[in-house]
UniProtKB/TrEMBL annotation:
InterPro entries: KaiC-like_dom (IPR014774), KaiC_dom (IPR010624), P-loop_NTPase (IPR027417)
Listed name of the protein: ATPase, RecA superfamily
GO molecular function: ATP binding
Pfam hit, one: ATPase
Record's keyword terms, sorted: ATP-binding, Nucleotide-binding
Domain KaiC as annotated: residue spans: 11-237
Superkingdom of source: Archaea
Source organism per UniProt: Thermococcus kodakarensis (strain ATCC BAA-918 / JCM 12380 / KOD1) (Pyrococcus kodakaraensis (strain KOD1))
């Protein structure tokens, strides 16, 4: 391997998903913001937890900001994978923040500006290196000014980059033709798919966009294993 290649590899944030890093040039780029989107039950939360567990394994603190699912339920659901989640939660290498509870009990809607300020405050306070927001699309139900999103999201993404925090925005896929602002502003978009083929559920992953990384955008097979999601090199069918 050339020295240049080695240096390039050093500068990567491993995803924690077996097989995924090979598709994205060795891992995520530090300080960048990525969208992970997909239909219900496609594996978004699992992928997010694998990402945080990988960081925790390497002593990088991870922050999971939960909107509608409560942290105790998320942890309980993730315990069936061999990711060491409980140990990381107990040692505070993975920290949960129940933002949904705060927003629901505040009983008032916020502007995008206020929402992103709140998020940055939480992220700064926790001093995490990896952040997962589950799910980012749910913020839409808490804001007063939907039209102000793009500008404030742009500001938020810029700020995260300066803080050297790698962030996954988990996002619900409402339609495969409707792209929301985060798709454009994020540095990468990963799509999780599931569809029926001969009465069998087939799962697949697609790198829709990954700035600065030459990649293949074809669907790759994906399965749930005891370690969470695993990605394979071959096409799903
Ligand atoms: N071993 C398995 N085999 C098949 N499917 C599995 C397995 N483990 C989990 N699943 C599926 O994965 C789903 C859980 O994945 P996860 O919660 O990460 O999805 P999600 O995209 O976050 O879903 P939601 O949109 O509901 O938040 C389960 O609901 C189940 O359908
Ligand atoms: Mg989920």
């Amino acid at each position: 391997m050339y020295v240049g290649e080695l240096l390039k590899n050093l500068d990567r944030i491993p995803s924690g998903v077996p097989g995924l890093d090979e598709l994205i040039g060795g891992g995520f780029l530090p300080g960048r913001v990525y969208v992970v989107t997909g239909p219900p039950g496609s594996g978004k939360t699992t992928l997010g937890m694998q990402f945080l567990a990988e960081g925790a394994k390497n002593d990088e603190k991870g922050l999971f900001i939960a909107l509608f699912e409560t942290p105790d339920i998320i942890v309980r659901d993730m315990l069936r994978y061999n990711l060491g989640i409980l140990e990381y939660v107990n040692s505070k290498k993975i920290v949960f923040y129940d933002l949904g509870e705060i927003l629901l009990s505040a009983n008032r809607e916020l502007s995008w500006d206020e929402l992103f300020k709140l998020l940055l405050e939480i992220i700064k306070r926790e001093n995490a290196k990896r952040v997962v927001i589950d799910s980012f699309s749910l913020f839409e139900s808490f804001v007063t000014n939907p039209e102000g999103k793009k500008k404030e999201l742009g500001r938020f993404v810029r700020k995260l980059r300066t803080m050297d925090i790698t962030t996954l925005l988990l996002s619900e896929m409402l339609s495969s033709e409707k792209y929301t602002d985060e798709y454009y502003l994020a540095d990468g978009v990963i799509v999780l798919h599931h569809f029926m083929r001969n009465y069998q559920m087939v799962r697949a992953i697609q790198i829709l966009k990954m700035r600065g990384v030459p990649h293949d955008s074809n669907l790759k097979r994906m399965r749930f294993t005891n370690e969470g999601i695993t990605v394979y090199k071959e096409a799903p069918i």
